[in-house]
């Protein structure tokens, strides 16, 4: 019953439920919340051996904790689900559970980069990622080149021109325009230079997209969103293919940053993940119907959703994703004023930033998540003043449409 590898399961749904079990001696059915900061040594020698890595066992919860470790194992299993390494063996991955998605990004960047290095990334990005690169990395002497990563020729040219690039960071689908980057093409372009590739897989989750299948080195998540699924905790995960690097440099960076999660948030995350495939299917099904409905509505100028045949990356999204996901953005014909009016009139849908919860969340990026950016930068990232972002929930789609209809009515 215990220790199932992801390859044991025919289907992702079973892996999401059964990939981990409590390793304690009391046969707890659920993974317990190990609310402890430290762990007891039987002897001085045992303590020494644990610190020296000669003996397994927990030391201190900033380094590792049984509840957070279970969540790490679960996320790594799901990102690796059904995948093989170069030798045809089941792919092994290592995850580190962080306090937030931003924490996971910090471990990624400070593990790989030093002053003088550069990151190549996309112009349209999650607001916090953009600011992390342009503010914190810049202060550390690490440059970020923001280009259109969906343009493979532009990527090839940038790699040729800048020998300082050490990391290509993808976000696909990207917030808030749902632009998709060809993950496989980017990995192929990076390989001859030995450049690492990371991807923010928050919008897709491993159920909709498994970037390790296309050759990335790292996946990171804001586990706050669809992985948790219920909006009950903040969390982040960094998942890596190079186990040695994850257990040495990345783990060291993680410990020194103090970027660790905590047992209670990890417990909530584990419970949320059990229903991940069910939720993602329903989210995607509802989102497709909402996007089609919105694109026919007279008050709507444009809908950005990678599951619509009119989206420029519809075919690519189909190639690399199981379903297109729950997040979309749309623009109202009468700009900012229409946007505010619409948001204020919502009855059921939730007015909030964030995404990936069971309820439908609606926000206004220009005044909320992307407010910190300069207006020109915002426009380059596709965030116009009248843009509305929507994370379609798993309520009955009829009720979502009813709410949108009354809020859009003149
Ligand atoms: C929320 C989010 C993040 C940041 O995650 P936190 O958990 O808030 O730190 C990063 N990327 C994307 C795409 C997000 O939606």
UniProtKB/TrEMBL annotation:
Family: Belongs to the trans-sulfuration enzymes family.
Keywords recorded for this protein, A-Z: Pyridoxal phosphate
A GO biological process held by the record: methionine biosynthetic process
Record-level Gene Ontology MF annotations: carbon-sulfur lyase activity; pyridoxal phosphate binding
PROSITE patterns with a match to the protein in the record: CYS_MET_METAB_PP
Protein species of origin: Niabella ginsenosidivorans
Protein name, UniProt field: Cystathionine gamma-synthase
Modified residues (N6-(pyridoxal phosphate)lysine): 225
Cofactor(s) listed in the protein's UniProt record: pyridoxal 5'-phosphate
InterPro entries (alphabetical): Cys/Met-Metab_PyrdxlP-dep_enz, Cys_met_metab_PP, PyrdxlP-dep_Trfase, PyrdxlP-dep_Trfase_major, PyrdxlP-dep_Trfase_small
Cellular-component GO terms for this entry: cytoplasm
